[in-house]
Amino acid sequence: MIELRNVTKYFRTKQGKNYILKDMSITIPSNINIGILGRNGTGKSTLMRMLGHIEFPNKGTIYSNHTFSWPLGLGGGFVGSMTGKANVKFVCRLYGCSQKEMKRVIEYTKEFSELGNYYDMPIKTYSSGMKSRLSFGLSLAFDFDYMLIDETLSVGDARFKKKSKEALLEKIKDCNILLVSHDMKTLKELCNAGIVLDNGKMTYFENIEDAIDEYEEINKKAS
Amino acid sequence: MLQRSSFQIFLAVQKALFLRELSMRFSVSKTGLFWTFFEPFIQVFVMVLIKVVLFGRESENFDFAVFLALNFIAFNLFKHIIIKSMGAFTANKALFVYKQVKPIDTIIARTMVEVFITGVIIVFFLFIGVYFNFNLTVKNLPMVALGFLLLIAFAISLGVFLAVANRFYSSIGKTISILMTFMMFSSALFYTVEMLPFALQSLILYNPLVHFIEMIHGFYFYALDDKFVNYNYMLLWILIPLYLGLWLYKKLEERIISL
Q1: What are the average pLDDT values for consecutive 10-residue runs of chain A, which has 223 residues?
Q2: If both were cysteines, with which of A64, B153, B157, B216 could B242 make a disulfide (CB 3.0 to 4.6 Å apart)?
Q3: pLDDT (0 to 100) of residue A215
Q4: CA-nearest residue of chain B to A175?
Q5: Which of A54, A56, A97, A149 to mutate to test the interface with B (most CBs of B within 10 A)?
Q6: Is B80 within 8 Å of B240 (Cβ atoms)?
Q7: Distances (CA, A) of A29 to A1, A169, A174, A207
Q8: Sheet containing A176-180: which strands, arranged edge to edge?
Q9: Hey, is the C-beta of A169 within 8 angstroms of any chain B C-beta?
Q10: Which string of DSSP letters, residue by residue, matches A13-80?
Q11: Which residue of A has its CA nearest to B5?
Q12: How many CB atoms neighbour CB B247 within 10 A?
């Protein structure tokens, strides 16, 4: 269960406050995969960051007794001057892994991300696709209640995309995902429920199809 | 995921950050590493040279080279903790993606790395001192150690305050770097307060760092003492910046994370 109580989030801009959420209260049930929809700039990523505890609401609280992964965005969370392997080790230590677990995570990530020699080279030599592959592989090696995935599935070539999706389908047998995506097919495939963000409002739909319909409605109105 | 207490998480984060900082020091720039370890030796060498040229040999009843080494080890530790703390938030920004990593953790980890490196430098100096037969006897080792601990506390408390301030006003960082050069000359590093003329003594004692340095070399050498050290003044300079720094940090922590 994820509970948002009177959550207000805004960013200050020169034109005044830009609201992402305006006094929203919502309860999201457990054991459900949720797709997050919204036009660009409506705060999908901010919502993910708030759930991952690296962004904070201006008012209200977000409560949950689940564990969340770090938001898997486009290659965030890595230090450029360190090798891929060193970055993986760092994250293992953060999560208090034993030596044995660390070895397993290093091997798994290396294999999954298909980086080859690049695995032992500094991150700054990576392309953005390579970074996302590493980030995604690394997060798959851990067990969270919720994985926060921000468009990561849309990187990589067709084959890697397919592989990621398969790995994710396998993974969501034991964990749940919160997925930001603009790809309706992926959303339908992976998610049960949906959240639509629009103009400071956040609406929860028990069925992802309804959420997609609403989102398309909003898009129509805008154009 | 296994449940961990917040202290266990803190320890895991510290270990991870410490090893990361250390491996970056050792792998990224070889010249940087060289300077880290040779800076103090060069400082001492140059200062001894200047003194010998200007004033000739043997004027004090303590070993001037050891005196310089001790003071510069202490001063460099102080300087590096502050400079590294001020850069800690920006340099580790990418790591705040992991909710376990709080900005202040990066300051603590960087301080630990500086203390570790200082330890290595001390060992180097001890080897050289023993090899060249310098007189290394310490008058009161526990008090010297306490002096170093207080100095570290002073540096951390200033470091936290300046790190938060520097995150929002980056000109502070530049000012501090310039101020450090001034501090080098006004912190009783190559003289003792007693050697100064009376008028200058009362002026220089406003510099808090002088008290820490005087305490350290006052308890190291039999020929020196701590009569100019004002311990209350030292504590004040530890506690006030620490309080202000932590207060400011607590207020702005969330903004530092998501900036």
Answers
A1: 91 88 90 90 87 89 90 76 91 93 94 92 88 88 90 74 87 90 88 91 92 91 82
A2: B157
A3: 92
A4: B1
A5: A54
A6: no
A7: 5, 20, 16, 13
A8: A146-150, A176-180, A34-38, A193-198, A201-205
A9: no
A10: ETTEEEEEEEEEEEEE-SS--EEEEE-TTSSHHHHHHHHTTSS--SEEEEEESS-BPPPB-SSTT--T
A11: A96
A12: 12
What are the percentages of helix, strand and coil residues in chain B, rounded to 5? Answer: 80, 0, 20
Question: A114 to each of A88, A139, B27, how far by Cα in Å?
Answer: 14, 15, 25
Question: Which residue stretches of A57-152 are H helix?
Answer: 84-94, 99-113, 128-140
Instruction: Quote the pLDDT of residue B250.
Output: 95
- Stated pTM of the model: 0.90
If you write DSSP's letter for every residue of B68-81 in order, what string do you get?
Answer: HHHHHHHHHHHHHH
Subunit contact B99:A55, Cβ cutoff 8 A:
no
User: In sequence order, which residues have a C-beta less than 8 Å from that of residue A108 and are 6 or more positions away?
Assistant: A137, A140, A141
- Collect all residues of chain A within an 8 Å Cβ-Cβ radius of residue B12: 93-96
Find, among B19, B62, B64, the residue nearest to B44 by Cα. Answer: B64
> From edge to edge, which strands make up the β-sheet containing A59-64?
A16-28, A2-13, A59-64
CB A122: neighbour CB atoms within 10 A?
18
Coil, helix or strand for A197? strand
Coil, helix or strand at residue B1: coil
Distance from CA of A124 to the nearest CA of B (A): 12
Counting as low any pLDDT under 70, the low residues of chain B are 1-2, 28, 57-59
**Lookup: tokens for B143:** 């008090």
pLDDT of B62: 82
Pair type for strands A16-28 and A2-13: antiparallel
Residue A61 in contact with partner chain B when CB distance is under 8 A: no
Of B8, B20, B28, the CB nearest to A90: B20
Residues in chain A: 223
CA-to-CA distance for A124 and B8, rounded, in angstroms? 31
d(C-alpha A84, C-alpha A92), whole Å: 12
How far is the CA of B119 from the CAs of A151, B20, B22, in angstroms?
A: 47, 18, 14
Q: Roughly what angle, to the nearest 10 degrees, separates helices B103-131 and B141-168?
A: 140
- Do the bridges between strand A201-205 and strand A193-198 make them parallel or antiparallel, or are there none, so unpaired? antiparallel
Please tell me the distance from the alpha carbon of residue B140 to that of residue A106, in angstroms, as a whole number: 49
Which of A66, A79, A94 is best to mutate for the B interface (most B CBs within 10 A)?
A94
Contact yes or no for A52 and B1 at CB 8 A: no
